[in-house]
Amino acid sequence: MRDTPIEATIDFDADGIQHGFLKLPHSHDESAWGALMIPITVARRGDGPTALLTGANHGDEYEGPVALMNLARSIPLHAINGRVIIIPMMNYPAFLAGRRTSPIDKGNMNRAFPGAPDGTVTPKIADYFQRTLLPFSDVVLDIHAGGRTLDFIPFAAAHVLDDPDHQARCVDAMQAFNAPYSMILKELDAVGMYDTAAEDMGKVFVSTELGGGGSVTARSAAIAMRGVDNFLKHAGILEGTVDTGPTVNLDTTGEGCFITCESRGLLEMCMDLGAPVKEGDLIARVHDVHRTGGTPDEYRAQTSGILAGRHFPGLVDMGDFLGVVGTLE
Ligand code: ZN
Prior knowledge:
- The structure is a single chain.
- The chain has 6 helices and 19 strands.
- It has helices at residues 63-74, 92-97, 121-133, 164-177, 194-200, 218-234, and strands spanning 7-8, 16-25, 35-45, 50-55, 82-87, 139-144, 150-152, 155-159, 181-185, 204-209, 248-251, 258-260, 265-269, 276-277, 282-287, 297-300, 305-311, 315-316, 321-328.
- The strands form 2 sheets. The chain has a 15-stranded mixed beta sheet that branches.
- Helix 4 (164-177) links the parallel strand 8 (155-159) and strand 9.
- Helix 4 (164-177) crosses helix 6 (218-234).
- It starts with 6 loop residues before the first strand and ends with a strand.
């Protein structure tokens, strides 16, 4: 396969803190010989494991960029044993546009793996992670949130994996992140995901959903920053002990956790995120917006637990994710 066209302006093997760019040639109408300059920080002190930290895998999710911009400007090098690679805005064109996917090629980064060095911009970035960054990383944290169309209770997540030892190492790192909720996930469509790429290489991988609605709150940013700190301490890369607090363990791998909308119209949520749910409880109504006097469609819980995620905008369409109930472990 051909070499990546991406060049790092920093030296991954040098000790110290370096701020630079992943430089991706991008020829377009406004800049014939131009390049996309994706910000990156690398902090290294001696030998030790490597952590790879990313935000804005989806461009409209902001807890990752906020937490990682703060880490990049304040990382305490004297307390690092190993290497921390910080890329706050993984799908940088999408981030700049405030959108989930890239405005250049419509690429959804988390469906673009393993990527391609001769593809468009999004697969080129994915390929750089797949063949350059992931192989020399030991622990990988990808900070997501709901973006403009979803909202979640703040949780860190680990996946159901074929190898129970591998899954246990990921679950331990998720618990160390110590978000208010900790979620075991089974992906419905794992092909093309960054998560799957990292897990297939046997890496310790943790992702999150820390809020949503296309913005960040003081609370969700604080959860992200504390979680990153804990994640690095758990990996032995940052000195200090993990700040352990209570977390609620949830699971969405059972039947009936996910609720899909089968109508279109005005969304009326009948309970809020974090509410306890019993099977049969009314979660939402969807009103037909074309006439008054009709009976709204009702969406009821098919299992018991906690309302962990929801559709965010006020209008909803056929096939939209309406909500997810996390079952208590
Ligand atoms: Zn996301």
